[in-house]
Design a protein that fits this description.
The protein is α/β, with parallel strands linked by helices. It has 10 helices and 10 strands. Strands 1, 2, 3, 4, 5, 6, 7, 8, 9 and 10 form a 10-stranded mixed sheet that branches.
Length: 300
């Protein structure tokens, strides 16, 4: 059997410090045939120039898409997606790094069952600040069928880690109503009601985290609002309205309370907790218990 074409899409914006590592990680894959689409979102630094240099050195596998208009992360992801011809696709940010055998391991897993729509793996999280130690993050869930558990508990894998089947994509690709967590929305769309998803063993990518951006309260609020939007769309599209309230509690309400507690905003934390207990006491207690259980796993 001939090996299927795989498309790697790299989405970049003002990442001149990191884009070389991102592209080189894709080139270094031990899998072929491969095409690498690098989509720049109208960067103002040297990112487009670096992308063009790589495309001249590797014209057979690297295809630049230099945007003339800034579309944001979701729009730029669709810009890259439109150029992907592979049976399987991996899309990630221009500051992350793939390890050499990622694609080959995942293609092998996907080829075993045509009902498998995406798979992930563990990732190493590392920081710009060398003083902050890197760590390995394992998937939240090992495997599943359909999108219900994804809607309830959030994305099971880092977006960077996911290889997905092109034929399972919705016609619009990444849902552009969801501006920040469009990867979460895409996993919901791919899994739908019956799609299978799972993992391959091992750590096959490195996810860069920028220390200065970890806890900015305005970003957290935007992220949580976008997550609620994705939940509302996903539950309506796939008939999971029965889990909508619990999903919002798990992925929006409790994370917002945790963020307020970390910021020592005790008044808003107390008011939010009280309101959640009054309006949805059982859902709140179940969700809070689940969160504690997951947190305690990290100390075992």
């Amino acid at each position: 059997m001939n090996a299927p074409l795989v498309s790697i899409g790299i989405v970049a914006y003002n990442q001149e410090k990191f884009i070389t590592e991102a592209i080189q990680g894709a080139i270094n894959q031990d899998y072929r045939p491969l095409e690498i689409i690098v989509a720049d979102d109208c960067s103002t630094d040297r990112t487009p120039e670096i992308i063009r240099e790589f495309s001249m050195r590797y014209p057979d596998i690297i295809f630049p898409v230099i945007g003339q208009q800034n579309l944001g992360v979701t729009g730029n992801s669709n810009r890259a997606l439109a150029m992907c011809h592979g049976k399987y696709i991996n899309i990630f940010g221009g500051d992350d790094i793939l390890l050499p055998n990622k694609i080959s391991r995942q293609v092998e897993w996907m080829e075993e069952n045509e009902n498998r729509v995406f798979c992930g793996h563990a990732c190493e999280i590392f920081y710009d600040d060398a003083k902050v130690a890197s760590r390995i993050v394992h998937p939240l869930h090992i495997s599943g069928s359909g999108a219900k558990n994804i809607i309830l508990h959030g994305p099971p894998y880092f977006a960077l880690s996911v290889l997905f089947r092109k034929s399972a994509l919705p016609p619009y690709g990444f849902d552009e109503r969801v501006l920040i967590v469009s990867d979460f929305m895409l996993w919901v769309d791919l899994a739908g009601t019956r799609g299978l998803w799972g993992i391959v063993d091992g750590v096959h990518a490195k996810y860069r985290r920028h220390v200065e951006g970890l806890s900015h309260i305005s970003r957290i609020e935007a992220l949580l609002s976008d997550t609620e939007r994705a939940i509302n769309i996903g539950t309506a599209n796939y008939g999971f309205q029965d889990c909508r309230k619990r999903s919002i509690m798990n992925l929006v309400t409790i994370p917002r309370l945790v963020a307020r507690l970390k910021k020592r905003d005790f008044f808003r934390f107390f008011m939010g907790t009280t309101l959640a207990l009054i309006c949805h006491p059982i859902i709140f207690l179940i969700s809070f218990g689940h969160m504690l259980k997951e947190r305690l796993k990290n100390f075992v």
